[in-house]
Amino acid sequence: MTTIAVASTPLVEALLARADDALVHAHRLSEWCGHAPMLEEDLALANVALDLLGQARSLYQYAAEVEGAGHSEDDLAYRRDAPQFRNALIFELPRGDFAETIARLFLASAAMLPWWQAAMESPDARIAAISAKAEKEVTYHLRHAGEWMIRLGDGTEESHARVAAAVAKYWPYTGELFEAEHPAVAALLPDPAPLRAAFDATVARVFAEAGLDRPRDGWMQKGGRRGVHTEHLGHMLAVMQHLQRAYPGAVW
Amino acid sequence: MSVTTLDLARVRAIAGAVVDPEIPALSIADLGVLRDVRVGDGGVEVDITPTYLGCPAMNVIAWEVEAALAQAGFGDVRVRLVLSPAWTTDWMTQAGRDALRAYGIAPPAARAGRRALFGADDETQCPRCGSVETEKLSEFGSTACKALWRCTACREPFDQFKCL
Ligand SMILES: [Zn+2]
């Protein structure tokens, strides 16, 4: 099925950014289904993925309404190409090993929890309502991932080395999570500056218990919010969108 | 009592009796998912709210509400999904909590106050033997709304409805 053209406005872009974050991260987590190191973790990662998928759906539905071009949440998820995606780069990187998956979930949740909490105060009632739901869910995600960071960091030599390497790999991608919003929508969405402080505090607390060092803030990788992605996103979308592209409108 | 008031009570009872497909022991009235019912010239409007944004049961619940009301003769039914205020386990009724326990699921803690991000869990009672000698196995259970626990007294694993 053909790719859609999104009638873009700053608000549509901002909603798509957070929806795409959630959808792409959900897909990466769902890749663990049937492959996690233990049954409990298989259930946990699938459940977190489902929460993120729910958040993505709510945001796509709202983005589609704001866009007003008659698109559905499915059109936005399945009928845009990689350059039209607005997710931060951290979410599209391949899932890697379990430590990498946990490190990404931890860093993303530590950044997103204060974002959702601040977005609950948005003057846009719809954003506030979605955020009040998502905030509760992400609290569980952060708790779960944080406990795993401590378990891995404070575990064996092997687990420590792997999670430390995972943190080093993802750290340069955290900067993009705190980019300023477009001035036209800044009043509706959280100011990223104070979120950074909350993120830093969570990281400091968990890393101290996990025996992990916080990497230095150096060069930060960016581009996803402008549609400049790594090669990994295209491959992921090929898998994720294949069915709807090959059999337009297929349902079960 | 006007006809509308009678209808309203009937609609509320019929819609409220629909059960959560993932926990059939629990009606959506006891779960706190049924938020509002309106009957007017335009037909019947029913508001439901999701427990979790990704809750896959919501579509089924909406269809079941429409089907149950259609069967009772209410033709023009619209089910609306409302997000605000956000659902909390505090809306679960005492009857719902009792039904959950009888079904083998530990009900959520009574007050969904802000939990500490990291730290001790609230005491959780085994739904089978009543012991509080229990331990959490996983924050996530068979569905998004449940955590997995184990009773160290009777050795049985059990689901707990998470506090949200
Ligand atoms: Zn027991």
Automatic annotation (TrEMBL), chain A:
One GO process term, biological-process aspect: phenylacetate catabolic process
Pfam annotation, one family: PaaA_PaaC
One GO CC annotation: cytosol
InterPro entries documented for this protein: Aromatic_CoA_ox/epox, Ferritin-like, Ferritin-like_SF, PaaA_PaaC, PaaC
Stored PANTHER family: 1,2-PHENYLACETYL-COA EPOXIDASE, SUBUNIT C, PHENYLACETIC ACID DEGRADATION PROTEIN PAA
The protein's name: Phenylacetate-CoA oxygenase subunit PaaC
Organism: Falsiroseomonas algicola
